[in-house]
Amino acid sequence: MTDDVTIRRYRQGDRNAVWTVHDRAFRASPVEFDPELNRYLRRIPEFFLDAGGEFLVATVPTGQGDSEVDPADGGANGNGPATGDETVVGCGGFLPSTAERSSVRPGAPVVADEDTVEVRSVRVDPDHQGRGIDRDLVRDLEDRARDRGFDRVVLDTNVDLTAARGLYRSLGYEAAGREAIHGFELVYFEREL
Prior knowledge:
The chain is of the alpha+beta class. About 20% of the residues lie in helices and about 30% in strands.
């Protein structure tokens, strides 16, 4: 893990900071941004935690993460990514694949079962990408899933997100198929824990 980065469980005060990280990461990506598809990130306790999942944030000390963020875009002097003495620079979560809100669908190339979690919404602020924060988030999510008795992880990513696909392959995930949904082509990955 990067020395100045801390990964911890989501807190209610992180709500706006998580949305800012998500928004900035997607706007910097090659994928067409549609905020309506990810509104669940405004309801993390309900969507992830109450469903038996987990949601983590990566933080750096305030002053290291907010210098490039414009307050008009929700920066540290607006309503976040800074939350007190720390600035949220990354996030991600998992759901049991059997949870009602899981995106593992009947007919998808990966199968939902009680031993499987689905990793969702791994994002890193563009100013902090390339530091391994995404890798640390995924590994921490895997550790927490394993500690809860899960033994398999599934996830999907847009085919156009080549860096994300490379990350998952480097972490030992294997491609498990593709599917077009809502106008996007998704690549499914899976890994045994």
